[in-house]
Structure formats: C-alpha cells, structure tokens
Amino acid sequence: MHTLAILLTLIAVIGMTSEALLRKHLLSRPLILGKNMGFSEKEMLVVKCSIAALACFLLLLSFGNWWNGLAPEKPDIRMWWTALCLTTVANIAIQFANVRATRLGDVSFIAPISAMTPGLVLLSAFMIGEHPGVYGMIGIPLIIVGTYVFVRQGSPLREYFLPLFVWLAFCSTEYLSPAEQAKRRALRWAYASALCGTIGLMGDGLVARHGDMILAVALELSVLAVVYAVFLPRFAKGEGDFAHFGARWKESGVSLLAFGASFAVPFIMLGVAFRLAPIAEIGSLKRLTIFLTVVGARWFLGEKVTLVRMFLAAIIVVGAIFVALDPTQGVVLDNFDAYVQKVVGR
User: Fold this and answer.
1) How many angstroms separate the CA atoms of 174 and 157, rounded?
2) Which of 29, 48, 170, 265 has its CA 20 to 30 A from that of 56?
3) Which residues neighbour 121 within 8 Å (Cβ) at sequence distance 6 or greater?
C-alpha cells in the first residue's frame, strides 16, 4: 500500500509539472501576422476543466469502484458534500489565479510561491493553540527567507528591507517598467493562489476522508468549467487580438488536450494516495513539482532561469518538505474536521 502511494504521488508530480509548463506554453504562443496564436484565459480554464472532468467521469464509470476501493475511507455524506463545496469554491479562485499569474510572469518565478500553502496550514495551528514541531520550526523560516529573497531578485538593495506585504501589495508600480509591473501583478496573483490553496488543501483532505474522491473531483471540475464559461469575459484585458479559434486549434490543439489531461492526473492519483500513506509523506513528495517546474521552464520554455533562482527554489522546496513532515498539519486537519462536523450538526 505504501509503495503504491509513492508511485501514485510521483505520477501526480509529473502531471502537475506538465500542466504548469503547458499552461505557460499555451499562454505565450508567438504572434503570426499580428494575431495571438495562444489561447485566452477563459479558453484555457474551460477546456482544461472540461477535459479533466470528462477523464474523471470516464474513470468513475469504468473503474470507479475498484479505484476508490484501493484505499479505506470513513463515509459521511454530509461531511463529503460540505468539504466538496468548500474545496470547489477555493479552486475557482486558485485556478483562475494560477492562469492569470502564469500569463503575467515566468512560470519559474511563480511556481515556488505555492510552497507557502503547507506553511500557512502549519501556521494556522497557532489559532487552535497548537505549535509547530521541530520540522515545522525549520521549514517555516526556510520558506520565509527563501521566498523573501526570491521575489526581490534584481530589485534595488533598499527594497530588501521593506516588509513583504508593503513591497508586494502597497508599493506603487507607477514608475516601474511594463515588464516589472507585470512581474509584480504576477506575484500578487501567485500569493492569492497560495492563500486560497490553504483552504483548498484542507477541503481536499476532508473530501478524501469522507467519500468517493473521484466522483467529487468530477463534480468539482464540472462546476469550475461552467463557472468560467458563464462568468469570465471572452478575452481579458491585455491579452491582445487572437486569431480564429480554428487556426489556433490546428496549431496547438494537441497541446491543449494534453494540458487538460495533465490537469486531471494529480486529482485522480492524490485522491487515493492521501488515504494510503501519511499526508506528511505525500505532501513532501508533491513539493518536487516546484523544483521540476523551475528546471523545466529553463530547458523546455527557454526562460532565463539563473542559478540563484534555482538555488532559492531549492531552499523553498526543502523548507516545504520539512513543513510537510511536521505532524502538526495532521492535527490542524483533525481539528478542522471536528469543527466542520460541529457546524454541519454531526
């Protein structure tokens, strides 16, 4: 069982890395005769969620009972629906923020920010009177210091002494170059994704505990696709003038399908892995995605990834691994589980 969990997680890591690289690839296609040959944010979100939902429904209909039976669960339909609603709302924000951040900045620059999510979960332990263990006390400073320096690469020395929230959220960008303004906006969206990811991570944990994870993912992704299709504008401000969809599909349709399929992989794999092995171990292995994405951005996307950026990303990953190994995260999830059960009247 433990070996199967590791195997499923490594497959999920490959899927998450592929999705991040394909996301940037499809959002930054070259212009042809002044027309954007990539895909809009709305198209990317609707297509990837639709394809992933379809893949999950097909798995559910074909092997759903066998696949879900690989891991034990504690069935509780009311908790399952509550957790599903929670993680769906969080993921609406998370996926949009990820796409917007990727359009505005290098994927190698925004990927390490996701390491904040497990750190924020661990820090939330203070709210329930718990304190991080030794691993957490090592991991949190590594994430903070690594991120603090990482987001300031290339900035004037004086900005290294500004608090992160001032530098990021309130510092004026009026006199910055367009490229630097886009970089700052990308960071803001990446941090928004990490903050919402804290809620989504706990919601995912409760869904996996209390019911059919594959059915939950299929329903969640279907809702995401509908929400994006109905509420997002066809083209976001600053995306440019797109070529006819047929021409873009002909050039990059296969990549778009692969993008959607790779998005489905981690949902399917981790739904079982989280119930086969300790969450800490699965969470640690997931962090490999950050470093692989940074390396992949250099080799496959041609981004200018310096050795300093790779080194800082590695520090953040190590910090995230320490945080994931801290058992306090499990305590937080248990308390959150108990709180939600109290709210829903269990």
Assistant:
1) 19
2) 29
3) 198, 201, 202, 329, 332
